[in-house]
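User: For documentation purposes, I need each entry recorded in a consistent format: the amino acid sequence on its own, followed directly by the corresponding structure tokens. There are two entries in this batch. Please keep commentary to a minimum and don't merge the entries.

Assistant: Recorded as requested. Entry 1:
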Amino acid sequence: MTSEDDELAAVLPAARAGDETAFRMVYRAQHPALLRYLSVLVGADAEDVASEAWLQIARDLHSFRGDWDGFRGWSATIARHRAMDHLRRTRRRPVSAVPIELVAVDLIAAQDTAEQVLEILGTDDAVALIASLPRDQAEAVMLRAVLGLDAASAGKVLGKRAGAVRTAAYRGLRTLAQRFPGPVTPEPATALRGVR
């Protein structure tokens, strides 16, 4: 856990109790990652879905019990449910804004695949590229690499076993690595930072 995570864990009880300043800190820390995750699921409608998710998070926060890691997983679960509701309503899938052919660049092999994609392409292009993966792989990569959830927590969000999440994330990262020229290959033990 980082010092920021420790600080957020310390303010979470105050946010649950209704402290607006504490809630603002929690929101500012979690919103960017949730928004990137939702961008993979619902594309351009991510802001709208995130707003719905945060309304539910704010409404139900008083009943949440757990630490900062638990909150990240809980909020991702709520965001995913709102995204699935949205997709059912609209009956459409997210569309990648960037053609795959336009993102081929040389990469340095010393970094892991998720880090390389985020650094080379920038956040919007990386999210669009991840969104081009099959949904199970895209969600696993986003939950593990972007939201920083461990395999067990990501499994709870997705309703899958931790091993299935690890496998989907690995396959997604391997696919991303294959889309780039050069010696970029995710190794099972190092495909994601902090694999748990």
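Entry 2:
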Amino acid sequence: MIEAEGITKSFGRVEAVRDVSFTQPAGSAVALWGSNGAGKTTLIRCLLGVMRCRGSARIGGVDVRSRGRQARALVGYVPQELAFHDDVRLGSAILFFGGLRRVDGARVSASLASVGLAGHERKRVRDLSGGMKQRLALAIALLADPPLIVLDEPTSNLDAAGRGEVVQTLRMLKDAGKTLLFASHRPDEVITLADRVLVLERGAVERDTTAAELWPTEKPVQVIRLHLSMASEAHAARVLREAGHAVHLNGQGLCVAVPRDQKAAPIHTLACSQIQVRDIEMLDDVDIPEGTP
């Protein structure tokens, strides 16, 4: 479904994406995992052909550079930041986008039903929960029934209930045969949805792996944030990754996702490299949903 070869994007002297190549078959789900600034969003924009870059990308065999409009017709895109008018009703909002996509009312209704929003057409956007707004964005992305769904941090601004709603909807779409490409920093989303994980750092693919290899356990995953003393976070992240840990930097310490019974493992790894941990925060536990392979 996606063929990327040598995708490279520079902003001045900074390479935001560096020589990324991969193929993604139809019906699969690929997660882009990495720190803030690792290049996930830039890579997505290059793959969609909305940002000029070096290298080549094809969607469904269609070259995104020479036939961008045709390639993007195969894609439903859900951005990280949503923008809806608060006063508009849900039904009016999706009908507006349905008109832009030139689809009929039956297709609009089917799209709402596919994400569990049928019957909510009279609700105003301001009255929707975060999860419902995200599902509305997904319904809009599905209006033309595209084979590929691309999502940029689909649950980053949601609470636990909203995240669960969206992830369950995406899982249903995957089971129905849709191809998913999504950027995420949440292990629960990756564990539940991804067949493959591309670990990005500084614009390059550092590791092509699976969720089972990143977290080889059936136990819940704990996300911990490490604050360091007199050490480079980038160097510490590299040490942890070389030891097999899933790490991302968010500007407020190192976030490491580990099995709940191995929370001390990254601290021990850093200590062996003489990197001192100043403080630890326990973030949310991530339960692997029932039925996840």
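Summary note for entry 2:
Residues 285-293 have pLDDT under 50 and may be disordered.
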